[in-house]
Amino acid sequence: MRLLILSLLFTSTLAWFYGRDEPDRWSVGGVWPLPQKIIYGSKNRTLTYDKIGIDLGDKKDCDILLSMADSYMNKWLFPFPVEMKTGGTEDFIITVTVKEECPGGPPVHGASEEYLLRVSLSEAVINAQTVWGALRAMETLSQLVFYDQKSQEYQIRTAEIFDKPRFPVRGIMIDSSRHFLSVNVIKRQLEIMSMNKLNVLHWHLVDSESFPYTSVKFPELHGVGAYTARHVYSREDIADIIAFARLRGIRVIPEFDLPGHTSSWRGRKGFLTECFDEKGEETFLPNLVDPMNEANFDFISEFLEEVTETFPDQFLHLGGDEVSDYIVECWVRNKKIRKFMEEKGFGNDTVLLENYFFEKLYAIVEKLKLKRKPIFWQEVFDNNIPDPNSVIHIWKGNTHEEIYEQVKNITSQNFPVIVSACWYLNYIKYGADWRDEIKGTAPSNSRPRASAAAERLWSPAEKTQRAEDAWPRMHELRCRLVSRGYRIQPNNNPDYCPFEFDEPPATKSEL
Amino acid sequence: MRLLILSLLFTSTLAWFYGRDEPDRWSVGGVWPLPQKIIYGSKNRTLTYDKIGIDLGDKKDCDILLSMADSYMNKWLFPFPVEMKTGGTEDFIITVTVKEECPGGPPVHGASEEYLLRVSLSEAVINAQTVWGALRAMETLSQLVFYDQKSQEYQIRTAEIFDKPRFPVRGIMIDSSRHFLSVNVIKRQLEIMSMNKLNVLHWHLVDSESFPYTSVKFPELHGVGAYTARHVYSREDIADIIAFARLRGIRVIPEFDLPGHTSSWRGRKGFLTECFDEKGEETFLPNLVDPMNEANFDFISEFLEEVTETFPDQFLHLGGDEVSDYIVECWVRNKKIRKFMEEKGFGNDTVLLENYFFEKLYAIVEKLKLKRKPIFWQEVFDNNIPDPNSVIHIWKGNTHEEIYEQVKNITSQNFPVIVSACWYLNYIKYGADWRDEIKGTAPSNSRPRASAAAERLWSPAEKTQRAEDAWPRMHELRCRLVSRGYRIQPNNNPDYCPFEFDEPPATKSEL
Question: Range of B264's domain?
Fold first, then answer.
């Protein structure tokens, strides 16, 4: 017996060294993010394409469930480039039971994503309160499916699973102003988000550099502010993205950042203040809203009415970050602004002028026909007075301790928070960088990745402490996503997937 | 006049700030890498698909030129996703004149890549010594073509160009051992290399982790050493890659690293020594060749005979790096090796045993039926005695000064060098990292990228000193490559391409 144990230990070391697979180092039918509770059965069952079916019960007309059934049956359940066997087994029906009605809109904040999933040798049963829970359950079920190299068959692990997310907002922010992302590229993000059970697309639509949002009421905004007439999201594009996200259980929260980061709004005459350099020369780089011009608030009001008609989500991100970066140039050195401040009794205190702007903005939001909960970046809490109804979005902090301190401080004043400070996905580096965050020192120097973040946001904290424990499942996740057609970089040092990424040399772009 | 200049300055600042285009900040018909001499004409000419033709003169049967004509006519000359206009202009014939015969094999070391290219309003004329020069000229010509947004027409800039590379070896190393790369993925690299006028694929085929090379004589090597039976390059795959590279003017230099980094050769019984940990227990992690076993040299000889029949390039990379990393484990702690060293009179000096191995390896290379020039990593120069016929490959050095010092030292002893130390393309980071290398402090902390390296290796040093000057052309290059179907990340801070990358959501992998 002792010999056997030794031999296993050696195998394990070898496996690690050579980057090879081995049962406890590479999951088979592992689920990412880790469910709240999962008990695997001891047996697996073979799946063949013509014997598998999905029964949607009394929800056979629900477009969300129909789209789900189609995607999983035709793409995600059997993603590997192998011949699919047919026949040879009993039927395997996935019965989906959802309590609540099929919603006409996207998920609302806090909607249940809870589900029960039982996979036996004869069937699979999904029970969920909402269609969103059913979507999460189906993704989990698809991750219990694996391709067995020996028998050359698809198999599914038997399991009993209870699951629900740790946090209600699990999002990714995309910035379509600094670099325009095509509708298809955004859809690819949404698809892969749903495979990681992420449920919020925070769409930072507009920034200083460009204005790709197409307003019907104010076409001069994108007319002047977009990079080119081709670099815009048409009304149809936006509706298409929201609908595509909804079918995958994802909310789209738009951001229109005010009063800074606004250069690209310059199509609207009089919206921005004149800005000046140290010598008093005009810089022609306006980046702050002109708070003196009362017409600007009427415009913002009309503009946001249109935005709320465009984006159904009950949250509306209104930015508020880095105003101070432009205050000297655009407010302090601007004589008209200084005069206005004196008239209002603000003296030299630009914070009072900021507050003046924000109070008028809160009043606009308050009066919107379609009610919205505003989100602001943390500066509005740090420097100003947030509307009591606001959500505060934390993006600063160099250590976990600093970030926790901020969370404590802001939530103790009864503001809900969204924390982005520790998840800068654009900070990339050489190697298996997703592991680094776990060490937990300086977040701004650490490099998590979206799947790693997705697990921290969904799964129980106590079960997801060590990168070492996570990697066998993450490796399997990566390989599954690669086979699903997504270019996911290796997440470990030397290793391989059963089926590696493949793509023919480029041909001429399609019209 | 002063007002006009000021206004231009302001426009320039604005353009920079907003990431927008502007004539002197974003090239139109710019060439990357920069030619030795280029004089643009003042006029451009419209190109329409049915009026353009390529005349290969007396080389109409040359497969390399036929493949070139097909690729450029059908893909690379007109890559943008726009309707192609026809008619409306006079014929525009590209006449290609090549002096030397069409070669049956890939480029040989030092083969001329020089060309003359003249583009007038009525025609284009390419003159080259070799087909390789013609390939480079055609890529240059394709980069003079641009899509004019105003007229919605393809146009070509008129120009007179004399060009040739600064260095004869301009390569990229791929490692298909630590992560297996599919044949298609390698072909995509080759395609994009040719668009950057790179001419060497250094194929690091085999390493400790896996052995994807399929030997006919010794199938046990990949049989045991490949990750799986799917993770191999068949004989046909290798021939396919070499042929694909040849058509694009690229040599393929294979590397078989000896005597270290050899774990994956373990399919060959007796090839590796036993290795031991501090306690004298066998580690089962052999990574060094057994130099005592005379049969191993017969095997290496037979194996390399096959390699030279497989890879036509006259260079053969035989590694030699990081032997010292395993010497204690696999030689010093190995009693049989110690005994052998005593017998040979090496005492405790493992360097003498290394030399013994290398001398026998040189003798094998010397006797190869197909003559090959060996390349060794720098340790063979630093620690041992390289064969006088060797090329030394520099990969160490923390500063430019250190690297230059090594180049001086090694070349002063009459060894040609390949320098990789300052071009670690796998060191990536956030942002426009290709610029950093220009600052020229610590190469291992800097982050160049392949296109940046390609220009440094091709273009005159004195004309390519500043990243600031390079970026307008690099930006145009990136946008062209994106339109050609390659996912090139933005190389600047906020910016845009006329046509952004687009790709539909993934569908099921093809069989």
Answer: 171-421
